[in-house]
Design brief:
Layout: E1 3-13, E2 30-45, H1 50-53, E3 57-62, E4 68-76, E5 79-85, H2 93-98, H3 100-103, E6 109-124, E7 130-143, E8 150-160, H4 167-178, H5 189-196, H6 200-211, H7 227-250, H8 256-273, H9 280-315, H10 326-349, H11 352-366, H12 378-402, H13 407-434, H14 436-474, H15 480-512
Antiparallel strand pairs: 1-5, 1-8, 2-3, 2-6, 3-4, 4-5, 6-7, 7-8
Length: about 525
């Protein structure tokens, strides 16, 4: 079973003069010699180094106190999450799953071997508690794939102890800098090994690749210039978010499913809203697949949100008005939904359909189907698309307000909510080019979306309460509390409907300014 550890560390260049004396650094009472550990690690990646390109490392290491498989995922500069698994001959399936959004159908192969003699020092406080580990590593790197180069160097590494204060690293760095030690130019040993063991041809290719403009950048690199540049920048950001959130979803990180679902919706909305920029004959099938993915992500997420809403409502009911095993029945429903949706979602993330979609998104941003309007001025092309989306929202709100309360109005409000989301995302795309007006529309649509979302959540909660009530009734239990909760949800929907006309009038007024 894999375990996760948050790793906060800094690396420094060393001229082999060793580690300066760190005794006396604020909080450090003693520096303890822990001896030398011999470490031997094989790093795995695809043949085109997709993991390295994303600053992800996967290794099988022997020696030291933490021998095993280590997968390191970047969090921010100097911070990584290290997921560990026991030693085995092959890459553990759990770790392979966490990099599947990068590897896809590719193969993980040994690319570099790193052997290090690590001279370790523990930095402890006056009570002997570990504050950080400092080490001097004498490293030898050997290329195993794509070349036969070797390299050697010495570096200093300082890693914060679990639960330690990151400010300590700043204090240690001041001492190191005074001793002539400087931060490493490489983010990791692997990054340095790949650079220093590369052939001349590989270095030339990497240098040429670095000169090109990325998808969403201007024709000559740098900031977006045309309407197409802006749409592609937004599309690329959402593609990146989907890929980067994949491991977090697999690990059940908080809000990860929601965030990944939002990214898929944002991208799909952009493809639909800016059909004059990107050819819809090409993007429509991609949009269909994004809709499928968002739907699969929504199975568990919608159940989670709905379950929390019902639980919160039940918590507000006085004990004297809770008739029968209502909470137990809700808990059974909630657990069953979570188990089923979790298993289903993992199957989706491992499916050929999902991996093919990721490949398709890569192609979309690398070789976009640009139309003539893509070369136009963003302030004109993007604004026109945003106004069109806003017009559709306005039309749907008007239709909904003409309907009497009931199923027809519920459906109309739900459609208006979806169009408000689309308009919000279109305005987000246009904000870097248009500025203030797009920001105002984004805020307005977010507010409208929240109000209509409250209404839709009430609709779904009432549907679930009816189902739970029917099951309870069939089991001979009282349905009184379910009816009470239903009535309260009905009132919440009425309040949302009542607030809509004034809210919409305010939004229209803001858009006319």
């Amino acid at each position: 079973m894999a375990e996760t550890k948050r790793e906060i560390e800094r690396k420094y260049e060393s001229d082999e003069s060793g580690l300066p004396d760190l005794t006396g650094v604020a909080g450090v009472a003693s520096v303890l010699d822990k001896g030398v550990a011999e470490l031997d690690a094989i790093y795995y990646d695809t043949s085109d180094l997709r993991l390295a390109a994303a600053s992800i490392t996967l290794r099988r290491r022997t020696g030291g106190s933490d021998a095993g498989w280590h997968l390191k995922l970047p969090v921010e500069a100097g911070v990584r999450d290290e997921i560990r698994a026991p030693l085995s001959d092959d890459v553990p399936e759990e770790l392979a799953g966490l990099v599947r959004s990068r590897v896809r159908e590719g193969q993980l192969v040994p690319v570099v071997r790193l052997r290090s003699s690590r001279d370790i020092r523990d930095l402890v406080d006056a009570e002997g508690r570990l504050l950080a580990e400092a080490s001097v590593d004498a490293v030898r790197a050997d290329r195993l794939f794509g070349g036969e180069g070797s390299a050697q160097w010495t570096e200093i590494e300082v890693e914060l102890a679990d639960g330690g204060d990151p400010a300590l690293l700043d204090k240690v760095e001041k001492r190191l800098r005074r001793a002539g030690v400087r931060p490493s130019k490489s983010t990791s040993k692997l990054a340095r090994a790949l650079t220093e063991t590369a052939s001349k041809k590989q270095r030339k290719k990497a240098k040429e690749a670095g000169k090109g403009a990325g998808p969403g950048e201007g024709a000559f690199g740098g900031e977006p210039v045309t309407a197409g540049d802006h749409v592609l920048a937004y599309a690329r950001a959402q593609r990146d978010a989907i890929v980067e959130l994949d491991p977090a979803v697999r690990q059940e990180a908080e809000e990860s499913v929601h965030d990944m679902r939002v990214a898929t919706r944002r991208l799909r909305s952009a493809l639909r809203s800016f059909g004059k920029v990107l050819d819809r004959t090409v993007t429509a099938p991609i949009g269909d697949e994004l809709k499928w993915l968002a739907g699969e992500l929504g199975v568990g997420r919608d159940h989670e949100v709905l379950g929390e809403r019902i639980r919160a409502g039940l918590d507000e009911v006085p004990h004297t008005l809770v008739s029968g095993p209502v909470r137990e029945r809700w808990q059974t429903w909630d657990r069953a939904g979570h188990r089923g949706s979790r298993k289903r979602l993992l199957g989706v993330l491992d499916s050929p359909r999902y991996l093919t979609l990721l490949d398709t998104l890569d192609t979309l941003v690398a070789d976009p189907p640009l139309l003539e309007a893509a070369a136009g001025k963003p302030s004109k092309v993007l604004a026109k698309a945003v106004r069109k989306d806003f017009g559709k929202v306005s039309e749907l709100i008007g239709q909904a307000l003409e309907q009497p309360s009931g199923h027809a109005r519920d459906e109309a409000l739900h459609e208006a909510r979806k169009k408000a989301k689309r308009t919000r995302y279109a305005a987000e795309t246009a904000t870097p080019a248009i500025g203030g007006p797009a920001k105002t529309l984004t805020r307005s649509m977010k507010s409208l979306q929240s109000l209509l979302g409250e209404h839709q959540d009430s609709v779904m909660a009432r549907q679930t309460l009816r189902e739970l009530s029917a099951v309870a009734h069939a089991a001979g239990e009282s349905a009184f509390t379910y009816g009470l909760l239903y009535g309260r949800e009905e009132r919440r929907a009425e309040l949302a409907e009542g607030a809509l006309p004034k809210a919409w009038e305010t939004i229209q007024g803001a858009m006319e300014v």
